[in-house]
Amino acid sequence: MDDLLTTIDGKEVKITNPGKLLWPELGVTKLDYITYLLGVAPYLLPYTKDRLLMRWRFPDGLQGERIEEKSIRNHAPDWVAGAFYKDKVWILLNDPDTLAWVANREALELQVALTLKEVLDSLGLFSVAKTSGAKGMQVHIPIKCRYTFEETRIINKFIAEYMLQKMPDQITLERLVKRRGDSCGRRERLPRLIPCGQDRREPCRRR
Q: 115-135: per-residue pLDDT in tens?
């Protein structure tokens, strides 16, 4: 099948080799995949907007080699939005045309950074954040007294390891500050403990 040139939200997106089988066993082609993603885009994009996108590409289909991509390559169109983080310009998955462009590059796994609060909300856990006054942010999750320390430790460990898996470049589980490599260092100002609600996010940001 010849390459296709389509217009999405006023942007021209070239679909190369649209008949390539990405899921050979299921007979799913690249064009099938892109068509599906565009169909669910109204439901997907609100959750990916303005979030750093990491992609796993499978140029030879799902059974082939997997290639990790984080930064925007030089061949990305000018209309692909990006944000600078840790020496890289990352793609922001903000619109259908970017979604189609990413899918055309055989990106079969799309991962965006989730906030801890979103994960806790998805588990039905109410949480309140506060600054510790010295060691960064702390998150309090009120629980009933019927749970043991060991039970709460298990769920805490599960959530921490899940967040580390999703955001390995931004999260560490190392307790000793000297082993983290990047810390606040000396405190040049008096520490303050400040509780933060959802309408008080700005004062909580690390400065």
A: 777 788 878 888 877 655 555
CB atoms within 10 A of CB 98: 26
Q: Are residues 38 and 97 in the same domain?
A: yes
Domain that holds residue 200: 116-204
DSSP3 helix / strand / coil % (the chain, rounded to 5): 30, 25, 45
Tokens 């006054």 appear where? 133
Same domain, 25 and 99: yes
Give the per-residue pLDDT at 191: 42
CA atoms within 13 A of residue 74's CA, in its CB half-sphere: 0
**Strand, coil or helix: 93:** coil
pLDDT in tens, 151-198: 888 988 888 888 888 777 767 787 766 666 554 443 434 344 444 554
Question: 3-state DSSP call for residue 179?
Answer: helix
Q: Which of 71-75, 160-164, 183-187, 200-204 has the highest mean pLDDT?
A: 160-164
CATH number for the domain harbouring residue 36: 3.90.920.10
**Other C-beta atoms lying within 10 Å of the C-beta of residue 74:** 5
